[in-house]
Amino acid sequence: MKEVVLSINKLTKHYGQVKAVQSLELDIHKGDIYGILGPNGSGKSTTLGMLLDVINPTSGGYTWFGQEPTHESRKKIGSILEHPLFYPYLTAIRNLRLVAAIKQTPYKEIDNILKQVGLFERRHSKFRTYSYGMRQRLALAAALLGNPEVLILDEPTNGLDPQGIAEIRELITKVAAQGITIILASHLLDEVQKTCSHVAVLENGKKLFSGNVSEVLNETVQIEVSSADLETLKTAINTIEFVKSYKQEENILLVRLDDKNTVHDLNKCLFEKGIILNHLSQRKKTLEKYFLELLENS
Fold first, then answer.
1. 260-279 tens-digit pLDDT
2. What does the alpha-carbon distance between residue 83 and residue 125 come to, in Å, rounded to a whole number?
């Protein structure tokens, strides 16, 4: 069992009548890339703000590394909240030296981190000459100073073009490969699906779901089947023990199997019953569709 890095217990934040976060409970383990997903106003940024002591909770709490938050535990956490803020007239190196001084971290780390985020060649350029994507990468470099065990990222790809999004996604994956636990808030479902190992879905401050991304998607695999005689096909499918459920969409049946059986098993079983399929394919539900169904049913 992996170490629990962050444990959130009934974390709540109210602003008057507005219930921004409501009794949130969550465990995040070492090495996870954990996406906190939800539409605007769902409580993602408020949650991250409380975890970083920027916002005081109304009730509830959390522990880092099995202990109540302390100054020492906060040194193990790097973060990017909202837009990256640096001095526009200073170079990347000089900006990072200021951050290093605040964190009481040696300057010798800076060159390696700039190489890691792909900014070493532009280390002597002033921040004001950087593109938005480069500014996000410099913010990530600042968060990595001090060898944190956890990175907290609030909408790290917000405002980026597709190339910039892909670059930040690749960087996050590389950082996670070093054993750093990453917690990121996002409303971009496709990016969470491509980047994260785990996800929690929030709406109006409430958790609708939390779990492993790959398990969510594997659970939602459906098999499309069709034949010349749809009614005979339905009758046959009803007799197959490993079919969990099916539904009809026009001339196609969407079939869900139990975990032990495959598309090949279904095709073989139907063939033995004298049914020749004219259509057979897998349909894997995207995280976006799963997310929208959660919101619709909440």
1. 888 888 998 998 999 889 98
2. 19
